[in-house]
Design goal:
Chain A is 36% helix and 16% strand. Chain A is α/β, with parallel strands linked by helices. Chain B is 50% helix and 19% strand. Classes of the chains: A alpha/beta, B alpha+beta.
């Protein structure tokens, strides 16, 4: 199956990249080399990220934004320098980037803040949701950009509507203007689908949303790690992403919001660190981003994510995108060539990223995953936190391979060999 | 190759030719269980027969979507509990649960488990334990509900008498 491997030039020196990731040199399941194709779930971390976190903890660990000692000062500097670097990485201003525990929390922050807005004064009125208002999502959302909106609609009486999928795995925008109607207050959608790989037309969707005065919330978890993304240029209002999917630590994610919006958005979590003045009967709040960072923040994680962003910048996000585009094209071609394999998502390498979901006729994805695991190939199986997508395409679950900077064409060959091996093992090879 | 330790021939046979599949009537209780991590779904019906103060599993029928392990385990389960005293069936269920939670450390009781002993290898794969338990837990739930309903109706009969 090692076709064409040498005839495709890659934008990255994968061998060199792999040397930076200690985990990738381990073996699994009786000494088989690890072939990691599950970065869409969580990515591995280069040694520079591990070192940055460890050095911070060995040298400068302290609570940030308080304390008069040298460590507190160093820790605060490290935390705020991380914010500056990460903000700049996504085309944001320093004040516009809020650290959260993960992307899910960042979406909940916006959803809860909007749910609370009706009681948060005149300035927050523009965010308020209630009966007669509409929240629009899409049929391809990850549960994290679906369930919080369901919940806020249940609490406020707003109506939930969604843009449907077409048969190929792209949004069907035929009824865009009737679904995103004048009542719409929010349009929340994923930049790049975690299950289908589809890259959505941010410009078309944002234009329609803004035409009717709706806010746009972009789930950028699967786009920020994999190519150049500039939120300001995209023109959206809020965007979220996650540290551990972009070579950084778990326990940190981010919300980006346009400054004029963050300035009037009511807080979500309240408590220490987010206040301006506190009395027994009332409080006033700090300006953003602090207003949205209640409690002790994930400091060493921010330092780690800073190092991850530096690592990605060093590779170059254009090169990262080109590399993954080549891998995706090869993966689609190879999987499409296996009889009995059906790709769930765009079958061509146009406006799609490096997540390939597929079903193998006659074998449940759990069993496909087990056979692959036996060969050292790590993939994700199941509904990928996008259960409505599985229902839409009439499948119980899929097998998903996702690619990143440390993957090579040979990884895809191993995947395809494993899929054929699974067909042979279960006696369903057509 | 470790695959064969998980996918024993008995498991593959049951997967290819599942027993007692298809929903049947009459039944006392119908339950719907899912495995939220992978999306496997099972609808299962139980009918109990109550004679001489003893409950006997008169019928178990089901429809399911899921992996080979969950499909085969449910099929084996029906074979082991059908026409058995409910008490004995629940002891088998308990043994199976214990085996699955043992991570291969406990010697399973073959006298009680019969063909279900083939799933011992699955217990070494934590991600698959829930697959093997789906049918068994649904059966336990349905049987408990059927007993509760029977108790309630016996009570109400007593009350009317």
């Amino acid at each position: 199956m090692s076709l064409a491997t040498n005839s495709i030039t890659s934008a990255l020196d994968v061998e060199k990249v792999r040397a930076d990731f200690p985990l990738l040199s381990r073996t699994v399941r009786d000494n088989k080399p690890l072939i990691y194709l599950d970065s869409g779930a969580t990515s591995q971390r280069p040694i520079s990220v591990l070192d940055a976190e460890r050095v911070f903890l060995e040298r400068s660990n302290a609570a940030v934004h308080r304390g008069a000692h040298q460590l507190a000062e160093e820790a605060t500097d490290a935390y705020e320098q991380a914010r500056a670097a990460i903000a700049s990485f996504v085309g944001a201003r320093f004040e516009e980037l809020v650290f959260t525990k993960n992307a899910t929390e960042a979406i909940n922050l916006v959803a809860y803040a909007m749910g609370n807005a009706a009681a948060a004064g005149a300035e927050a009125k523009r965010f308020a949701l209630g009966p007669g208002d509409r929240v629009v999502i899409t049929e391809m959302e990850h549960h994290s950009n679906l369930v919080p909106w369901q919940q806020v609609c249940e609490r406020t009486g707003a109506e939930l509507a969604w843009l449907p999928l077409d048969d190929e795995g792209r949004l069907d925008l035929t009824d865009l203007d009737t679904i995103v109607n004048e009542q719409t207050k929010v349009l929340a959608f994923v930049h790049q689908s975690n299950i289908l790989g589809t890259i959505n037309p941010v410009d078309v969707l944002t234009k329609r949303a803004h035409d009717v005065g709706a806010l746009v919330v972009l789930d950028a978890c699967q786009s920020v790690p994999h190519g150049p993304v500039n939120f300001a240029e995209l023109g959206v209002d809020f965007a979220v992403f996650s540290g551990h999917k972009m070579l950084g630590p778990t326990g940190i994610g981010a919300l980006w919001g346009r400054q004029e919006l963050l300035e009037v958005l009511p807080p979500f979590l309240s408590g220490g660190s987010m206040i301006e003045q506190v009395y027994l009967d009332h409080s006033t709040f700090a300006p953003p981003p602090q207003r949205f960072e209640a409690g002790t923040p994930p400091v060493s994680q921010a330092v780690g994510l800073h190092a991850a962003v530096q690592y990605l910048r060093h590779l170059g996000m254009d090169a990262v995108a080109a590399h993954e585009h080549a891998l995706t094209g090869y993966g689609l071609e190879q999987l499409n060539a296996v009889p009995g394999v059906r790709i769930i998502g765009p079958a061509t390498n146009d406006k799609r990223g490096g997540a390939i979901s597929f079903v193998v006729e006659g074998i449940h994805s759990h069993d496909v995953g087990q056979v692959l695991d036996d060969r050292g190939v790590a993939v994700r199986v199941g509904h990928h936190c996008a259960w409505p997508v599985c229902r839409r395409y009439g499948v119980a679950a899929t097998t998903r391979a996702t690619f990143y900077v440390y993957n090579d064409f040979s990884d895809i060959d191993a995947l395809v060999d494993g899929v054929v091996g699974a067909q042979e093992f279960f006696g369903v090879r057509p | 190759m470790k695959l064969e330790t998980m996918y024993q021939e008995i498991i593959l046979d049951h997967y290819r030719k599942p027993l007692n599949r298809g929903l049947r009537a009459p039944f006392d209780v119908e339950v719907h269980h899912v495995n939220p991590t992978c999306g496997d779904e099972l609808t299962l019906r139980v009918e109990l027969d109550h004679t001489d103060g003893k409950a006997v599993v008169k019928d178990v029928s089901y429809e399911a979507i899921g992996c080979s392990i969950s499909q085969a385990a449910t099929s084996v389960m029906t074979e082991l509990v059908l026409n058995e005293d409910l008490d004995a069936a629940l002891i088998t269920q308990g043994e199976f649960l214990q085996m699955m939670q043992s991570r291969g450390e406990v010697e399973p009781n073959e006298d009680v488990l019969g063909d279900a002993i083939a799933f011992a290898g699955v217990s070494k794969y934590p991600a698959r334990i829930k697959c093997a338990l789906l049918g068994w837990m649904a059966f336990k739930d349905a049987a408990a509900q059927a007993m509760a309903a029977a108790g309630a109706s016996t009570d109400s009969q007593k009350e009317t008498a």
